[in-house]
C-alpha cells in the first residue's frame, strides 16, 4: 500500500497515509523503506516526543522550519502548511509517532494531507490511533510461525510459548526477548512505552494500571475503583485514545499481553500494591472469587500453599476451557506461593500439559515425569495421569524408548482395588507398549479391556485413550464411536482443550474406514480448533492427517501444501510422530505416481532425528512399504516386514487390516497370489473400504493381464476407475486407464461422474458462503492453483458458469 501511495504521488496524486501499529511493530522500519524507495523526492522528517507534546507547533518546526506565522488560527495555519508542502514538491514527509506530536502540529498536518490529491506530495504518519480522514494501514502482528522464525534468527532455536505469548507477534519484542528472555530495562520498546505512559495524566495512568493488573476488569468495578480513589472516570477515554486500553463490551482490557507486561513492570512496586489493594476492596468475594484470589496472591509476602492451590485449580479450568494464556498467567502467579511436593506436582502437571500441546513434547515428558514423582505419595490419581500424559508426550516426540520405560514403571503401581479409570490407564500402557514392541498376543487383551472401560467412563480423555486402543485393534468403527463420544463429552463439560486431540482419532478412524470426506471435515475442524485455542502441536497433528488423506488419493500438490504448512513446527518442536506421518504421506504420493523407488527411499528415512523408528506408524505403513519393496524386486525385505504385520492383523481380527495383509502377500508374487487377491477383495467389500478396494483391483488386474486374462482384468479395472474418479484420485485413475488400454479397452475421455468429490464439496460450500479463492486455500490448506482447478471442474460437473449460480445451488 505504501509503495502504491508513493507511485500515485509521483504521478501527481498525492495524499496522506497513517501506518498504525503498536510500538515495536515495525512502523519506523517501514518509514525507512519508504525513504529508500523515494528516488526523485525531497524528504523531510519529524518525530513526536512525549516531553514536547504540550509545546505548540514543535512538530511543524521540525518539518517546516520555513513557516514564520505559527500564531494563525487553525484554518489559516492548515492552509499555510499545505502551501509549504506543495511548494516543495515532489516531497515525501515522514512523521514518526504522530500521536506524540503537539495537537496543533498534528491537526495542521492532517488538514494538509487530506488536500494533497492534486500534488506530488505524500505525508506518511506512524501512530497508534488513526487520524480522521487520512487513509490508514494496520501492521498486523507476526503469526506464530514467523514469530518463531524471528526467535530462531536471534539465537532461540526452539519455540518458547511464554516468549511467543508475551511478544504477541511484535518484531522488536521478539528480538529483545530472544536476547535476554525479557524486555531489557533500557530497550527501545520499553522506552517508547515509558514515554507514552509519562505523557498521560495521572488518572489515565492509574486506569491503564488497573486494566494491566486485572485481566477481568469490568466497567462496574472500574467505576467503583475510580470513585474510591478519586480518579475522574473521563480519564478512561484518554487511556483508550493513547492505545493503552480498549473496551470489549462491558470489559476494559489492556491492548495486548506485551503492553500489559510493560505497564505492570514500569509501575513502581508501591503503585502496583496500592492498585491490587484498591481492586480487592471493591470486588465481591463471592461473585469474584478468582479475581480476589489473584489480587491476594499478588499481595502475598511468601509461600501460601492454600492460595497456590486455588490459583492452580482455576488455571487448570482455564486450560481445559481452551484458554492457555490465562492458564499460564495463573500458573506463573501460583509458582512463588507453592510449597510442598504435592502443590508443586500439580503445578508441574499443568505445565507439562501446556508444554505438550504448544511447546516441546520432549520437555513436556520430562516435566510430567517430575510431576508424577512429586504426586506419587499424596495424589495417586494425579500421578498416574501425569505418567499417562508423559507417555503421550514421548510418543509425540518419537521417543519410544522413554515410552517403554514409563509403561514399565506404570505397571509397578497396579493394585487389586484400582478404580476403573486407573485400570484403563494401566491396561492402556500394557496394551500399547505390547503393540509397539510387536508382542501382539500380549497386547490384545489389555487393549480390549481399555475399549470396554472407555464405553463405561464418561470422561473425555478416557474415551480418547479407549479410541486409540480400538484403532490399534483395527476396530475402526468402535474407535470412531469412542472418539466422537469424547468430542460430545468434552462439549458438554466445557473442556474444549481436549477436542482437537479427540478429533485426531475421529479423523484417523474415518480414514481407516475409507470415509475420505468425513476424515477431511474432521481434520479441518481439528485444525481450526487447535489454532483457535493456541495448540500448535495439535494443529500439526491435523495438518499431517490432512496430508495423508490427500496422499492416499495421490494428490501431490495438496499433500505437499499441507506438509509445508507443518514442516517448520515439526522441525523446531521435535515432533517425531508427525514427522514420520509426513514421510509416510510423501511415500504414498510416490506410489500413486508409480515411483516405487522414491517411496522405498522415503520409508528408509521414516525415523525420528535420533534414528528411533516409530513403531505405530511403521506398522500402519507396512502395506505401502511392501508395495514399494515388491515393485522394486526386494521381496525378501518385503516379506520380512510383512510377517509382524500379519501377526498384528490376525490378532485384531480386523477385516480392514486382513484385506491389506492378503494384498501384500499377493504382491510378493507367490504361487497362490490370485487367492490372496480374491480374499483381499472380499474383505475390502465386507469392510466397505472402497479406495483400497480399487487399488487392490488395479494390482490384481495388472497380474491378470500379464497372465493373458484380459477380460477378467477389464472387469476389475472398470470398477476401480469408477471408484478412483469418485474419490478424486486422478493419478490412480490415470494408471487404471492405462491398464484398461493395455488390456484392449478403448477409454475415450473417461467420462467423469456427476457427483462432486469430497474436496470439491468443501470448496463449493465455501464459495456459496462468499469465501474468496485465497480464503478457501487458507482454510483447506491447499494452493490457490488447486482451488482454481477444482472450481473449473465443479462448474463443468454442475453445468454452471458463475459463483452466483454455484451459491444458488447450495442455498
UniProtKB/TrEMBL annotation:
A Pfam family this chain is assigned to: GerE
Domain HTH luxR-type positions: 749-811
Transmembrane portions of the chain: none
GO biological process terms, semicolon-separated: regulation of DNA-templated transcription
SUPFAM superfamilies from the UniProt entry: C-terminal effector domain of the bipartite response regulators, P-loop containing nucleoside triphosphate hydrolases
Entry annotated with the keyword Cell inner membrane: no
GO molecular function annotations of the record: DNA binding
Keyword Acyltransferase: no
Superkingdom of this protein's organism: Bacteria
Keywords, comma-separated and alphabetical: DNA-binding
InterPro entries: P-loop_NTPase (IPR027417), Sig_transdc_resp-reg_C-effctor (IPR016032), Tscrpt_reg_LuxR_C (IPR000792), WalR-like (IPR039420), WH-like_DNA-bd_sf (IPR036388)
Signal sequence annotation: none
PANTHER family registered for this protein in UniProt: TRANSCRIPTIONAL REGULATORY PROTEIN DESR, TWO-COMPONENT RESPONSE REGULATOR
Protein's recorded name: Regulatory LuxR family protein
Organism: Amycolatopsis thermoflava
Amino acid at each position: 500500500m505504501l509503495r502504491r501511495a508513493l507511485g500515485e504521488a509521483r504521478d501527481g496524486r498525492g495524499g496522506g497515509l497513517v501506518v498504525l501499529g503498536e510500538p515495536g511493530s515495525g512502523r519506523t522500519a517501514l518509514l525507512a523503506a519508504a525513504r529508500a524507495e523515494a528516488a526523485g523526492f525531497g524528504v523531510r522528517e519529524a518525530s513526536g516526543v512525549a516531553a514536547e507534546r504540550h509545546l505548540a507547533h514543535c512538530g511543524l518546526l521540525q518539518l517546516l522550519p520555513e513557516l514564520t506565522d505559527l500564531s494563525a488560527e487553525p484554518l489559516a495555519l492548515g492552509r499555510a502548511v499545505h502551501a509549504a508542502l506543495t511548494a516543495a514538491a515532489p516531497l515525501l514527509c515522514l512523521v514518526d509517532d504522530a500521536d506524540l506530536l503537539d495537537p496543533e502540529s498534528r491537526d495542521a498536518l492532517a488538514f494538509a494531507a487530506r488536500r494533497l490529491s492534486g500534488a506530488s506530495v505524500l505525508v506518511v504518519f506512524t501512530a497508534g490511533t488513526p487520524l480522521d480522514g487520512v487513509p490508514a494501514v494496520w501492521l498486523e502482528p507476526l503469526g506464530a510461525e514467523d514469530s518463531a522464525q524471528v526467535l530462531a534468527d536471534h539465537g532461540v532455536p526452539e519455540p518458547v510459548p511464554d516468549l511467543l505469548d508475551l511478544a504477541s507477534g511484535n518484531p522488536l519484542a521478539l528480538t529483545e526477548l530472544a536476547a535476554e528472555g525479557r524486555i531489557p530495562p533500557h530497550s527501545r520498546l520499553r522506552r517508547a512505552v515509558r514515554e507514552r505512559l509519562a505523557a498521560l495524566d495521572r488518572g489515565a495512568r492509574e486506569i491503564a494500571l488497573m486494566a494491566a493488573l486485572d485481566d477481568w476488569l469490568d466497567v462496574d468495578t472500574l467505576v467503583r475503583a475510580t470513585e474510591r480513589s478519586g480518579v475522574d472516570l473521563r480519564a478512561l477515554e484518554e487511556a483508550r485514545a493513547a492505545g493503552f486500553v480498549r473496551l470489549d463490551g462491558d470489559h476494559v482490557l489492556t491492548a495486548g499481553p506485551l503492553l500489559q507486561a510493560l505497564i505492570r513492570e514500569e509501575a513502581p512496586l508501591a503503585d502496583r500494591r496500592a492498585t491490587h489493594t484498591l481492586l480487592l476492596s471493591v470486588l465481591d468475594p463471592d461473585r469474584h472469587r478468582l479475581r480476589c484470589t489473584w489480587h491476594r496472591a499478588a499481595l502475598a509476602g511468601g509461600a501460601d500453599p492454600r492460595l497456590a492451590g486455588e490459583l492452580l485449580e482455576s488455571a487448570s479450568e482455564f486450560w481445559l476451557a481452551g484458554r492457555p494464556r490465562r492458564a499460564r498467567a495463573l500458573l506463573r502467579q501460583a509458582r512463588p506461593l507453592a510449597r510442598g511436593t504435592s502443590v508443586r506436582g500439580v503445578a508441574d502437571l499443568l505445565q507439562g500439559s501446556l508444554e505438550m500441546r504448544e511447546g516441546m513434547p520432549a520437555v513436556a515428558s520430562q516435566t510430567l515425569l517430575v510431576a508424577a514423582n512429586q504426586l506419587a505419595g499424596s495424589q495417586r490419581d494425579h500421578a498416574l495421569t501425569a505418567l499417562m500424559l508423559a507417555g503421550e508426550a514421548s510418543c509425540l516426540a518419537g521417543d519410544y524408548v522413554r515410552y517403554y520405560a514409563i509403561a514399565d514403571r506404570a505397571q509397578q503401581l497396579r493394585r487389586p482395588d484400582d478404580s476403573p479409570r486407573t485400570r484403563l490407564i494401566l491396561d492402556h500402557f500394557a496394551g500399547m507398549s505390547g503393540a509397539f514392541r510387536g508382542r501382539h498376543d500380549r497386547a490384545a487383551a489389555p487393549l480390549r479391556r481399555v475399549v470396554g472401560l472407555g464405553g463405561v467412563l464418561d470422561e473425555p480423555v478416557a474415551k480418547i485413550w479407549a479410541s486409540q486402543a480400538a484403532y490399534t485393534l483395527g476396530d475402526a468403527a468402535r474407535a470412531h464411536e469412542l472418539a466422537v463420544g469424547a468430542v460430545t463429552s468434552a462439549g458438554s463439560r466445557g473442556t474444549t482443550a481436549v477436542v482437537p486431540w479427540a478429533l485426531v482419532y475421529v479423523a484417523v478412524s474415518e480414514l481407516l474406514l475409507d470415509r475420505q470426506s468425513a476424515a477431511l471435515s474432521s481434520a479441518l475442524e481439528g485444525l481450526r480448533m487447535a489454532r483457535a485455542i493456541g495448540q500448535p502441536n495439535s494443529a500439526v497433528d491435523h495438518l499431517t492427517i490432512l496430508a495423508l488423506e490427500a496422499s492416499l488419493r495421490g494428490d501431490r500438490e495438496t499433500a505437499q501444501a499441507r506438509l509445508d504448512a507443518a514442516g517448520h513446527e515439526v522441525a523446531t518442536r521435535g515432533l517425531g510422530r508427525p514427522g514420520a506421518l509426513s514421510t509416510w504421506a510423501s511415500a504414498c504420493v510416490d506410489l500413486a505416481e508409480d515411483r516405487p523407488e522414491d517411496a522405498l527411499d522415503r520409508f528408509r528415512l521414516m525415523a525420528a532425528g535420533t534414528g528411533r523408528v516409530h513403531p505405530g506408524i511403521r506398522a500402519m505403513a507396512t502395506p505401502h512399504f511392501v508395495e514399494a519393496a515388491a515393485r522394486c524386486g526386494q521381496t525378501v525385505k518385503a516379506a520380512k516386514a510383512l510377517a509382524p504385520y500379519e501377526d498384528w492383523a490376525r490378532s485384531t481380527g480386523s477385516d480392514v487390516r486382513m484385506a491389506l495383509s492378503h494384498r501384500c502377500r499377493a504382491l510378493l508374487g507367490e504361487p497362490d497370489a490370485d487367492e490372496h487377491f480374491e480374499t483381499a477383495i472380499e474383505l475390502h467389500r465386507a469392510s466397505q473400504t472402497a479406495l483400497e478396494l480399487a487399488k487392490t483391483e488395479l494390482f490384481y488386474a495388472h497380474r491378470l493381464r500379464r497372465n493373458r486374462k484380459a477380460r477378467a482384468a477389464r472387469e476389475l479395472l472398470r470398477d476401480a476407475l469408477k471408484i478412483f474418479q469418485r474419490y478424486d484420485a486422478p493419478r490412480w485413475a490415470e494408471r487404471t486407464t492405462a491398464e484398461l488400454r493395455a488390456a484392449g479397452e478403448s477409454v475415450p475421455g473417461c467420462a467423469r461422474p456427476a457427483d462432486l468429490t469430497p474436496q470439491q464439496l468443501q470448496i463449493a460450500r465455501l464459495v456459496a458462503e462468499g469465501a474468496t479463492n485465497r480464503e478457501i486455500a487458507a482454510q483447506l490448506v491447499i494452493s490457490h492453483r488447486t482451488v482454481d482447478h477444482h472450481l473449473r471442474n465443479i462448474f463443468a460437473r454442475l453445468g454452471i458458469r458463475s459463483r452466483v449460480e454455484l451459491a444458488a445451488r447450495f442455498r
